Amino acid sequence: MEIGETVAWRLRNTLYGHIQKLPYDWHVSCQTGDIIQRCTTDVDNIRNFIQNQLSEFIRVICVFTIALLMMFSMDVFMTLVSLAPVPFIVGFSIFYFKRVGREFARADAAEGVVQTAAQENYTGVRVVRAFGRESYEKDKFSEKTRVFRNIWIQIGKMLGFFWGMGDLVGGLQLVAVVGAGVWRSAQGQLSPGTFLAFYAYCNWMIWPVRHLGRILAELSKTLVASGRLSDVLAAEDEKDNPQALCPELKGEICFDKVAFGYGKGEPVLKDVSFTLKPGESLAILGATGSGKSTLVHLLCRLYDVKEGNGRITIDGIDIRSISRPHLRRHVGLCLQEPFLFSKTVRENISMAKPDMELDRIRNAASIAKVDETILGFTSGYDTLIGERGVTVSGGQKQRVAMARMLAAAPPIMIFDDSLSAVDTETDTKIRAALRKSTKEAAVIIISHRISSLMQADKILVLKDGVVEALGSHSELLKQDGSYRRIFELQSGESGECNGG
Questions:
Q1: How far out from the chain centre does Cα 275 lie?
Q2: What's residue 389's pLDDT?
Q3: pLDDT in the model for residue 387
Q4: Are residues 283 and 351 in the same domain?
Q5: CA-CA distances (angstroms) from residue 57 to 49, 51, 113, 390?
Q6: What's the DSSP call for residue 384?
Q7: How many domains is the chain built from?
Q8: How would residue 213 be classed by pLDDT, with cut points 50, 70 and 90?
Q9: Based on the domain organization, do 220 and 335 belong to the same domain?
Q10: What is the predicted pLDDT for the residue at 349?
Q11: Residue-level pLDDT at 390
């Protein structure tokens, strides 16, 4: 048992550590439920085989070998008779092994689909309830579990057939041995005592043959699990150049004719150029799919710009030559859909530095206008968020995530529509507090609200991945472009907004 548990422990730690290093693109292409299934069920299958079947397999080999040697020493002819079914058993076992292996692979994949469906439903329970989709989700989950059940029923039938065939062949083997033994005893070629001893050894040898089917089933399941784990471990992780730089970054950002596309698809960004110095703020406006988030992903090196497609520099250094962990410690990112861990409020805000002083945590929360809200919780900053803890609203979650980034105080701060769930009045207060607290940082703000962008030093308007305009609020209002049209719509000055 100790060996099995140790192997499982090491496998889980190795998998988890490797998954942490895999590129962002890998995580986007994989389903969460399937990853969890590989790290749990597949590891358990390997552990169970080591604990229960590996020792049995060794025992079967030893018993079979000892019985065979004893039988050969007693009577070669009778031994050959008892071994006659072995070629059939071996051939049938190989066929069965391959067939059941494919079914176990299907079962593992189906279990991953079931786990993904459950995980999505539990995560999106508010959406399901809001649209009254409980019955639909229940039927959808029931269909996936029905497929999973049917696969295992098919596997059960295959196992039953193979085990039954093993019993049948074992019975026929005994009949052949008894028949041959009686005939040879009648001919005086085999003594009754030797015959009875041979029968006992033969009966002893049949048990491993009958048990072989169960061992093969577990071995096939284990090999499928090992293959699925190998797929994860074979995925290439994010690798930095051994000579990657770790410079002290102040935050001067320069995009120089950057072009980028996902895979072999159409470019998402085309010839994007701009410069942002420390202490300045850049606002980015654009329709959905215009490349705003892609621009942020490139700056954090979640994706890299390919050679010949321009370059991104910070303080004049190409970010591809900077160590990824070092770069990301200097680039703070606050997303529209933030993620808070099932930890205390204090632990969530101080993630960048777990031993962070409470005063610094509270100062960041004050800027994000969430300090009073947190103090109103039962245990204040020691209140547990999430499972079995307090449930925060969308706006509160965004503000806690913002406080987390502000507490880290990186030289580059990115707000990716991070106040979309906050009311306009609170948004205005937070923006005012941010302008005072981020004077030395290079700040990038992505939003659909003109009111959230207009105070920025520069405003970048993206349209279909191309820079349509770049300038201050007053400069862009003088141009006949997307920015002025959106401003007029949002401020109610256009004829359409006034009902004209």
A1: 35
A2: 52
A3: 59
A4: yes
A5: 10, 11, 32, 51
A6: B
A7: 2
A8: low
A9: no
A10: 92
A11: 61
DSSP letters, 425-473, are HHHHHHHHHHHHH-TTSEEEEE-S-HHHHTTSSEEEEEETTEEEEEE-H
Residue 183, token pair as written in the block: 């005939």
Q: How far apart are CA 114 and CA 32, in angstroms?
A: 11
Contacts of 357 (CB under 8 A, 6+ apart): none
- Judge if 295 and 214 occupy the same domain: no
CA-CA distances (angstroms) from residue 25 to 159, 274, 309?
A: 40, 26, 19
Domain shared by 301 and 372, yes or no: yes
Residue 343: band (very low, low, confident or very high) from pLDDT cuts 50, 70, 90: confident
Distance from C-alpha of 438 to C-alpha of 228, rounded to nearest angstrom: 47
Query: Which two tokens mark 170?
Result: 């074992």
CA distances in angstroms from 196 to 168, 177, 192, 201, 202, listed in the order given: 22, 11, 6, 9, 10
Sequence-ordered strand ranges (E) for 152-235: none
- Mean of the pLDDT values across residues 420-434? 74
Which pTM was predicted? 0.72
**Tokens of residue 449, six digits:** 């609200």
pLDDT recorded at residue 310: 92
First to last CA, the chain: 78
Q: Do 270 and 134 sit in the same domain of this protein?
A: no
The identity of residue 354, as a single letter, is P
Write out pLDDT tens, residues 244-292: 888 988 889 999 999 998 877 788 999 999 999 998 999 999 888 888 8
Domain extent for 110: 2-234
Assess whether 135 and 198 both reside in one domain: yes
356-374: per-residue pLDDT in tens?
999 999 999 998 888 999 9
User: Is the pLDDT assigned to residue 499 strictly greater than 50?
Assistant: no
Q: Amino acid identity of 21?
A: K
- 35 with 137, same domain: the answer is yes
474: CATH: 3.40.50.300
d(C-alpha 336, C-alpha 422), whole Å:
11
